[in-house]
Amino acid sequence: MNIPKTQLPRIVIIGAGFAGLALARSLRGINAQVVLIDRHNYHLFQPLLYQVATAGLEAGSIAYPVRKIMHERPNFYFRMARVNEIDTQNQCVLSDIGSLHYDYLVIASGTKTKFFGNRDMERYSVPMKTLKQALNIRSLVLENFEQAVVATQPQERDFLMTFVVVGGGPTGVELAGALADMREHVLHKDYPDLDFSRMHIHLIQSGDRLLNTMSKKSSAAAEKFLQQMGVQVHTNLRVNTYDGQVVTTSSGLVIPSATVLWTAGVTGALIDGLSAQTLEGSSNRVLVNAYMQSIAHERVFVIGDLALQRHSDYPDGHPQMAQPAIQMGKQLGKNLKRLLSGRQMEPFKYRDKGSMATIGRNRAVVDLPRKHFSGFFAWLVWMFVHLFSLVGFHNKAIVLLSWVYNYVNYDREGRLIVRPFKKRGFVSFTSDEI
Amino acid sequence: MNIPKTQLPRIVIIGAGFAGLALARSLRGINAQVVLIDRHNYHLFQPLLYQVATAGLEAGSIAYPVRKIMHERPNFYFRMARVNEIDTQNQCVLSDIGSLHYDYLVIASGTKTKFFGNRDMERYSVPMKTLKQALNIRSLVLENFEQAVVATQPQERDFLMTFVVVGGGPTGVELAGALADMREHVLHKDYPDLDFSRMHIHLIQSGDRLLNTMSKKSSAAAEKFLQQMGVQVHTNLRVNTYDGQVVTTSSGLVIPSATVLWTAGVTGALIDGLSAQTLEGSSNRVLVNAYMQSIAHERVFVIGDLALQRHSDYPDGHPQMAQPAIQMGKQLGKNLKRLLSGRQMEPFKYRDKGSMATIGRNRAVVDLPRKHFSGFFAWLVWMFVHLFSLVGFHNKAIVLLSWVYNYVNYDREGRLIVRPFKKRGFVSFTSDEI
Structure pTM? Predict the structure, then answer.
C-alpha cells in the first residue's frame, strides 16, 4: 500500500462512514500513524440518500472528499481500496492494492443490503445503500415515466407508474413519502398527458407498524401522513416473489410493478478473517466489549453499525444509526490516545439524542428521549439537524439553497437521466459495476 | 410516439441543445403543435462541461430538465428518443419509440466527436461532448492519482501523472488550464506523498496557434497564460498513435501517458435520410438557405452547429458556438410564425457578440467585435456572461455559490469518484453505454 514505515505505532481504520470518519477526526494530534481505507474516495451522508434518488439533491451535495479531512495531518494517510481479508495472527490487512501491517485495527465497514436469501429480489429489486444505487433509482423512476408517456396499453402504463417500496424503516418511509411529493408537485406538471390518479405507491412492512425502532406515536403519525399523501401502506405483509413484473405477497395480494425499491434489511459488511466466535449469527455484527474491542482480538476494535456491544440498556446492541456510530468513533479516538499513553480506556456510553424521520413536505416525526412531536415543527427540526450534520460548509450551503428553492417552487430540478438505467436481461441491480 | 392528432400543423424539433431550445422557447403562442425530441431529458450547458470534468461543478448544475420548459404550453410535447432516420418523402421521423409525421421538421442535432478515422484514438482517448463523458474524465483523473499514490515504480507514477489534451480550441485550452489549476491548488494538498513537479500537462494543437477562431492577440495571451501555469503547449504538432500507453506525434516526440483527452474535432451529427446533395462533405454540415431551410427539402429546416449557411460574411458557415445557434433558433421561431400566418420569412443575420475563453483562475481572453482584452477583467466578464447564460435560477445560484466557494477556498469539492472508470480491456470510451 506504499505507506512509509515509521517508529510510530500504526492504526488502520477500515471504512470512512460516520464511525470511521468521527474516529479519524478525533485522532488529530495522536502520536501514531493513521491509515484510513475506504473503497470510495468520499464520505457519504447516507440519511439524505433518498433525496438524491428522488431528484431533490445532487450526488455531490451529500458526499465529501475524504482526503480533504486529512489535509495538514502529517502522519495521516488515505487509501482507496477494497479490503478482502484481515489476518489477526500476523496483524495484517489484505486488500486489492496490497497488504498492510497494523498495530491497532479499527473495523468500521458498516452494513450492506440483506435480501434474506431471496434471489429473485436480489436480482430485480433496487437497493439504496450507495450513491450509485441512488442515482440508478433516480434514472429508473424517470425512465418509467418517459416510457409510460409513449405506452399505448393502459396496463403497461399502470405497470410503469406503480412503485413498490419494501421495508417500513426510515429509508422506506422517506422514499415512499418523497415519491408521493414528486407525484403531487412535480410529475403531473412534467407529464400532463398522464393520469396521475393511476400512479400508485405501495409501502410494504413485514412488522405491525412503520418505523418500529421509534415510538408508537411516531409510527402512527408516519402512517397517517403517508396515507394523507396517498401512499398505500401495508403492515403485517411480506413480499414473496418478484420476477421484474409482478410482486406476490404473503396475503395473496399481487402487484404488477416495474419498480421495487428494497429497503427491508441490512446485514453486517463483514470482512473475512474474524473468528466465528466474535460474530452474532443472525445480524452478522461483531461482538465487542465495553471499549469497542473485539472479544477475541485484543488489537482489533469495531465501531459503527457493525459493532454489537451488549450494554444493559441495549442488550441487542445499539441502534444502527449515525448517532451511535459517531459517538463510538469519538470515544474510541479518546481511548486510543489513552491506550498509547498507557492510561486506562473508558467504557463507551451512548447518549441517546433521539431519532427522527421525515415523511414529506412539512411532515416529519421526532422522538426525543422524553418527548414526541410530529408535523411542521418536527419537519423544521429534521431539516436543521440534517443540515448542520452535513460535513463541510459548501455542502451545507448547497443543500440549504436547494431545499429553499425546492420548497418555494414546489420543484426538484435534479430530474435528469444522466445514465439511463432500464433493466436489461440479466443485469443484477446489486452488481458492483452499476 | 403517442402524440395526439390535431387540426394544427405539427412542427417537430430534433435536439434540445442551444438551437433547439431557443426555438422551442420562441414558439410560445404559435398556432401549431410542437414536438421536441432529444435522446436526453435535459438541456446541457456545454460551455461549462470542462468544469464538471475537473470537479469544479456538479453535473446537475449545468443541466436543465427539458420538460420544465414545456410547462403550461398546451400543444407542446417532449419525447426522449433517439431519431434513427427521417423520411422526407413521406414527411416522417423514425425513432426508437416509433415514427411521427411532421408538417415542418427542424434538425438541431449538433455535432459529435470526430476522430479523423484514427481508430486507436477512438478506442483509447476520452472525448468530452456529454455529461457522462465529463463525469468519466473526472473519475479517470482522480483514479490516476489514487493509483499513483500506491505505484512503486517512478515510471508508473509519471505515466499516471501525465495528461495529454489534444486540440487547442476553447475546450482543450479550458481543460488544460483547469488541470493546471487543480495541480496548483487542490491536488498537492490531497496527495502530499506525490511530487507534483512530476505532473505534466501537454496541450497539442495541430495548427500554428491556440484558439484559432479567435484573434491572434487572444491566441498569444492564452498560450502565455498556459505556460505561466506550467502547461506544455505544442503547436504545429499532430498526434499519430495512442495505444493506451504512449502517444506518438508528427515531430517524433513520444509521451507515455495514462490519459489522453480528445477535443480535436467535431463533425455533424447527421441523421440518415437527408439527400447527399444537401451535405457539405468535409464537415458533414447541412446546407441551408437564408431562412435556415434545407436547400433540397422545403419543409426541413436546420439550425445550430449542424447548419451551414454560406453567408457573404461567413462563406464557410457561422462559427459552431452557442451564440449563432441561439440566434438561429430565435430567428426560426419568428419565421415559423410568419410562415404559418402566410407572411414572408426574414433571412437570418448573425450579430457577432464576440467570443471568449477562460484559461484558469483570474485568466481569460475576450474578443469583442472591435476590442480584445485578457487577464483578470476578461475572466470576470467570462464568468458573468456564463452565469447569466445558464438556464434556470436554481442552476445560476448553485453555480455562483460553487464558484465563490471554490475561488475563496482554492478548492474543488466535486472530486468524488462516484462511478470508477479505469480503462478495462477493450472497452471503448466512446461507447454509448459508458
Answer: 0.94
